[in-house]
Amino acid sequence: RLVKVIGKNDGKPDFGILGSKYVPNALAEHGRADVAYGMIDRTDYPGWGHWIKRGATTLWETWDGVGSRNHIMFGDVSAWFYKNIGGIQPDAEHPGFKHFFIRPFFPPDMAWARAKHESMYGSIKSEWTRRDDSIMLNISVPVNTTATVVLDGDAKMCDRALDLYVTKSAQADKSIFSVPAGDFCFEIRADRR
Questions:
Q1: Cys-Cys crosslink for 101: which of 68, 89, 122, 130, Cβ 3.0 to 4.6 Å?
Q2: Could you read off the pLDDT of 34-87 as tens digits, one per residue?
Q3: What three-state secondary structure class fits 24?
Q4: Which residues contact 178 (CB under 8 A, 6 or more apart)?
């Protein structure tokens, strides 16, 4: 129903500060990061992209820019990029990033993305780049932590020697990898993204 409401509003945000925190996250959590990204990326009024088109280098207090021009009220969009474009997501059952998920969304109009989170165990990194007909994803999992990497479609490890340390499974057109601490590279076929 939320996707239908957004469609009726021509894909534009039709909410204020509270909705800006929950709507993009709810969409991504239910497999519609594409709809959330489309709403975030728009350059017409209202929206974050519209602010950028108007020259914003900070987050504004209101969609029309009448209030403060440096205000965190619509700021959860920054966390959305880390969680969805970079794909770094906490695991509620293992607080503090003892275990976490890497679930990146690859917008078709983006060539690359890089995200880093400083956890209490060390740096968690996720970086992806489009190359010809594939997407290369590199991640870093800190010592004493583990991660589950969830990728749409058929994905494989870049270095087959690391298969000894990684468990791969499939579920509903997804490739799922359980990885220990270390640096890992994955290749995802881009024709499906």
A1: 89
A2: 999 999 999 999 999 999 999 999 999 999 999 899 999 899 999 999 999 999
A3: helix
A4: 146, 147, 148, 166, 167, 169
